[in-house]
Automatic annotation (TrEMBL):
One of its GO terms (molecular function) is ATP binding. It is an enzyme of class 5 (isomerase). This is DNA 3'-5' helicase. Residues 7-284 form the UvrD-like helicase ATP-binding domain. GO terms for biological process: recombinational repair. CDD domains: DEXQc_UvrD (cd17932), SF1_C_UvrD (cd18807). It catalyses: Couples ATP hydrolysis with the unwinding of duplex DNA by translocating in the 3'-5' direction; ATP + H2O = ADP + phosphate + H(+).
Length: 719
């Protein structure tokens, strides 16, 4: 039987795709055809009659990857791929549990809780049990529960040696009971429940073991303990497990992924042969050389080389912008130029390390009228915390905005329950008024009346404070007064949301500077438009925005990797953890190897992020890419700082660089001057830059660290 799909494979790929029935590990670098080999092997198994489509189980990392695999299979073979067990761990477990819900102890229509729903459920639980959520922060409990489940363990399995852990253990058990009562299942539970089902029910296990004699796993390096245990349950004595992975692309250790699963796999499944693929088919030479040189800085690699038969291609373009807006503008201009050269937007990716970085990029794309899609993360103005903040702003502007009122009347929690809200809505219905008017009418008595009354007071107080202030300050006050900022600051994992809230202030600064209309209404209109427009649908030609994590396994003609600054990439959090930098470097390796033909690296000397100006030093990773592979685009090259000096502490601005200090003779501020700030207290100016509306100073505060401040808004006084 002819198998044209085997024709293009190189000898190692061919060997892997047509291996006899045995477990195997394919260990190979980025772009070497792992996913292609895995897909081709499925086609080969089916076409040679070694397996029926129903006898195959394949695990991919994302739903998108699963869909793509099915499409490719459909193109290789005249079979109906619908109904094949190809999907993510979560997707496949869901399927198993739906088919056997009774055995698994679940209602037929069990609901799945996403991460936000899960958190909500935990909060409700704490409240019902009267547990102090400051002592047991819900987010922390969520982590505790999920991490334990990801190891294949339940509350009862936790070894609790201290009262605090014992309490967490108790709450974990109570949470599981609540979920069971309500018929809901969180993500980790999907896996654990189906793993337990298989371990408990011998006949069911035997059924699936004899059915799935071929199990194939992509991105094996990122499986966690429970996923590995699940695979072991499903793989019967005559199953062949075909695992492909790349230790250099292991980027989920923070979520419990274990590269060690690879070694366990070799041992547990008697793998006697590890196949390596060393030819990269994706990228031009320069891009590959850069990736190889970078990853060589990691220790303890399993070791493999990657080469390409492609030409060296174009140099990697490196752009150093004065600030984040300039960086975004550069990306927009280059993307447009690529489009003119005939490259579709859909084949261009914009990658960043952290979600908060997308706002400036989105803004620039929006202004340029370039359609874009944000993958694996919400667009900035659609994020929960931003929506809450906007709702407060809407209320400040218009108290009759019922939608906004409902969103935040009990957020952060003020003890206004669903029952009180129902009563309020009833009164509004009777009076044919807005909720605000209904609340004001005084018809709602008792405790509900009092707490809703104080919410009205709060909004009125916010209106008073904001009166006459510039927009960015209005937002700052709103964030503080509403309790939003404090709410997210108190959450153990709220840092990202706090960053996003501060980004909203930055957005307002940018908006005011650009539009010259600092009315709240204008800003809200802008936010609504940016949220609604330019969300290009599937299939249309839109630029692809995503974090590096979300880009795993994908490839693009051109890739822009932005924000290459110490503290951003490698990320601040990782720099303090053992192995943190190595994981960041693997992430950088993943980013670089997404590019097929063209790679842009960029950084900004200063950036508005996390609520303040930051002065970023170039990422150490840039030093790890050989100079001869790089082409610097802007004319002002400057030496990079050594990685040791990687703090955000005051740095002398390099003369001649785009952000060089331009002394404004009319400015009343100068370096060395003592100043006072309403919030941060007293300090001394250590740096000045810009002039007029752009003037900023860096102040070393006695008790509040070093901060960049925009003079227009900072309200500094000489001291
Ligand atoms: N033998 C080959 N001939 C031509 N093109 C190939 C060959 N093998 C793989 N490719 C192409 O190279 C690219 C990378 O392949 P693939 O995505 O399977 O690599 P990968 O190892 O899974 O990468 P990653 O590690 O990023 O997941 C794809 O466009 C694929 O079609
Ligand atoms: Mg792949």
């Amino acid at each position: 039987m002819t198998q044209p799909f085997l024709a293009g494979l190189n000898p190692e790929q061919l060997e892997a795709a047509t291996l006899p029935h045995q477990s195997a590990l394919i260990l190979a670098g980025a772009g070497s055809g792992k996913t292609r080999v895995l897909t081709t092997r499925i086609a080969h198994l089916i076409q040679t009659g070694q397996a029926s489509p129903a006898g195959i189980l394949a695990v991919t990392f994302t739903n998108k990857a699963a869909k793509e695999m099915l499409t490719r299979l459909g193109a290789m073979l005249p079979i109906n791929t619908r109904g094949m067990w190809i999907g993510t761990f979560h997707g496949l477990c869901n399927r198993l549990l739906r088919a056997h819900h009774r055995e698994a102890g679940l209602p037929a229509l069990f609901q799945i809780l996403d991460s936000a729903d899960q958190l909500g459920a935990i909060k409700r639980l704490l409240k019902a049990l009267n547990v102090d959520d400051e002592k047991y922060p819900p987010k922390q409990l969520q982590h505790f529960i999920n991490n334990t489940k990801d190891q294949g363990l339940r509350a009862k399995d936790v070894e609790a040696h201290d009262p605090y852990t014992r309490k967490q253990q108790e709450l974990f058990a109570a949470y599981d009971e609540q979920c069971q009562r309500e018929g809901v299942v969180d993500f980790a539970e999907l896996l654990l429940r189906s793993y337990e089902l298989l371990s408990r029910d011998a006949s069911l296990r035997a059924h699936y073991q004899s059915r799935f004699r071929h199990i194939l796993v992509d991105e094996f390096q990122d499986t966690n303990r429970l996923q590995y245990l699940w695979l072991k349950q499903l793989a019967g004595p005559d199953a062949a497990v075909f695992a492909v992975g790349d230790d250099d692309q292991s980027i989920y250790a923070f979520r419990g992924a274990r590269v060690g699963n690879m070694q366990d796999f070799e041992r547990d499944f008697g793998v006697d042969k590890v196949i390596k693929l060393e030819q990269n088919y994706r990228s031009h030479g320069n891009i590959l050389d850069a990736a190889n040189a970078l990853i060589a800085h990691n220790r303890g690699r399993l070791g493999k080389n990657l080469w390409t038969a492609e030409s060296t291609g174009e140099p990697i373009r490196l752009y150093e912008a004065a600030n984040d807006q300039e960086e975004a503008q550069f990306i927009v201009d280059e993307a447009k130029a690529l489009k003119r050269e005939g490259i579709e937007f859909a084949h261009i990716a914009l990658l960043y390390r952290s979600n908060a970085q997308s706002r400036v990029l989105e803004h620039a794309l929006f202004n340029a009228g370039i359609p874009y899609r944000v993958h694996g993360g919400l667009r900035f103005f659609e994020r929960q915390e931003i929506k809450h903040a906007l709702a407060y702003l809407r209320l400040i502007g218009n108290t009759d905005d019922d939608g906004a009122l409902l969103r935040v009347i009990n957020f952060p929690a003020r003890g206004i329950g669903a029952r009180s809200l129902e009563q309020l809505q009833e009164i509004a219905r009777q009076n044919q008024s807005s909720l605000w008017q209904a609340a004001k009418s005084g018809q709602l008595g008792g405790k509900a009346g009092t707490s809703i009354g104080s919410f009205l007071e709060l909004i009125r107080a916010m209106q008073d404070t904001c009166e006459g202030l510039p927009l960015p300050e209005q937002i700052e006050h709103m964030l503080a007064q509403s309790g939003l900022l404090a709410h997210y600051q108190a959450e153990k994992d709220g840092a990202d949301r706090v960053d996003n809230l501060n980004e909203l202030v930055n957005a307002a600064v940018g908006f005011v500077n650009e539009i010259e209309d600092d009315s709240l209404v204008a800003f809200l209109t802008h936010a609504a438009l940016e949220a609604g427009e330019h969300q290009a649908g599937e299939g249309s030609d839109a630029l692809q925005l995503m974090t590096v994590h979300a880009a795993k396994g994908l490839e693009f003609h051109a890739v822009f990797l932005s924000g290459l600054e110490e503290g951003l990439f490698p990320h601040d959090n990782a720099r303090n953890e053992a192995d943190g930098v190595e994981e960041e470097r693997r992430l950088m390796y993943v980013a670089i190897t997404r590019a097929r033909r063209r790679l842009y690296l960029s950084l900004a000397q200063s950036r508005m992020l996390h609520g303040q100006f930051r002065y970023g030093l170039a990422s150490r990773f840039l030093n790890e890419i050989p100079e001869n592979l790089l082409k610097r685009i802007n004319p002002a090259p400057k030496a990079y700082y050594a990685p040791e000096k990687t703090t955000w502490a005051p740095q002398p601005t390099p003369a001649g660089s785009p952000a060089a200090y331009s002394r404004d003779s009319s400015s009343p501020w100068h370096v060395g001057q003592n100043v006072a700030h309403a919030k941060f207290g007293s300090g001394v100016i250590v740096n000045c830059e810009g002039s007029g509306a752009d003037a900023r100073v860096q102040v070393k505060f006695r008790n509040a660290g070093v901060k960049w401040l925009a003079l227009e808004y900072a309200k500094l006084t000489p001291a």
